[in-house]
Amino acid sequence: MGRFARKRMRRWSLMTGVATLALCASTSLLADFNRLGQLQNKGFSISAEARLLDAGSGANALLGSITPDRQLSPASVTKAYLSAAALNRFGPQHRFTSQLVSAASIDNGVLRGDLVFEGGGDPGLTTENLWRLVQRLHLAGVREVDGALVVSQWRFGAVDCITTDRCNALNRVANAYSAPLSSAGVNFGSWCVNVAPATSAGAPAQVGLCDSQTSLITIDNQVVTRPANSGTEISAERITDERGDVMRLTGQISTNATARDVYRGAGDAAETTAQVLMGMLNQAGIQVREPWRVSSSQPPGSAQRLAAVDSQPLQELLLRIMNYSNNYMADVLALDLVETPQAQLRQAGQAIETYAQSLPGHGPLTLYSGSGLTTENRTSAQGVNVMLEDMFRQSSLFPSFVAAFQSPANGVMRFIRRGSSTFQNNVMIKTGTLNQPFAVRAAAGYFRTAQGRWGVFSVMVNGNSSTPYLSWSEVLDPLSLDLEAMILAN
């Protein structure tokens, strides 16, 4: 290389270096919550904080914050607290056991007394689990019950409704998330009805329970089959009246449409379990002489286990709770944290508070539920990040914990699939949403920087009675840009 060529190369290298430093400086100046903070101009309250966690130079460096110690509603970000508390209490491989027990003896295939289903507080108990229980009871030699089927929810249930949605749902509900809570609940405290088209247009749709051929509840079917490609629109409501739970279905379904499953919260979770279990016993040829009943009493110490079924490991339950933000599962798991019988939601919240108070530097925390449905829940962005960092430091728990967060690029919630590829592929997030009595949009989780460093972030945006409706795009769009700048600058 000639002398002039070498001089040009040195000059180019110097200019490139200066330009790179300028770009990094510019990026660092923008690596804060400046964009998200503009929502304050619209009257929204914000608590936000992001910082690095790695042990290298600039460890725990603050990247950006907006009133990080301000107490605001976290909505379903509460579930991150629940997950951390449950993992610390039970461990990732813990399973909840539901069982059939009896103090009576078996005489020539006849159980000479009551058959008791003892709810184990399994947040993910399904009809498949109940069917396995019945099959195992059959294998144990029981062919007849000379007594009643008793569903025992002695651990907790019926849990008092403390939110407007759940209280209204005792009589009427058009969703599944307001399902009542019980340690003996099945199918997330909900009824599932399958709706399929008839063979010809104009006829009523074909309907039936998803998990039983027996008519356990009344189905008021007003869904009409329409010609092919006419569109499918189904509305469903569970009503409880003198007939018990009634599923009222209206709308239409096209002749070429696929069958649809419709879930609605039941009127009483333990009673639903009793009805489903009784239907399965009959289907298995096990006759029960007396009518079923629900009890809040613990089975006697003399009761022997006849059949049992375990839940999925806790780490798998958390995937469902966090990814789908399942409120029923979250509150049941939170109630499992309470050691005394007949637990209520405030006690569950206090159990999570006790866990958080053990974390140095956390600050105040108020939880009335583990799901975040209760608007009284309060924490700060700083507090959330303290909890996230503590989990990051626990090598045996962190893999199970972080796996329950969603990647925007691959998460099941489509509304988070936005922003640049940097945001979508470098962030692990849990969101929280409330609309009444005021808007809440919250997000928290982890990120990996361009240099491979770990960071945590927490953002809570709360409205009030005078602020306008707040869409997720108004929060996620600026947040994704703010986090992207922090990721690229570090």
Automatic annotation (TrEMBL):
InterPro entries: Beta-lactam/transpept-like, Peptidase_S13. One of its GO terms (molecular function) is serine-type D-Ala-D-Ala carboxypeptidase activity. Keywords: Carboxypeptidase, Hydrolase, Protease, Signal. Its EC number is 3.4.16.4. It comes from the Bacteria. Residues 1-31 form the signal peptide. One of its GO terms (biological process) is peptidoglycan metabolic process. It is an enzyme of class 3 (hydrolase). Belongs to the peptidase S13 family. NCBIfam families: PBP4. This is D-alanyl-D-alanine carboxypeptidase/D-alanyl-D-alanine-endopeptidase. It comes from Vreelandella titanicae.
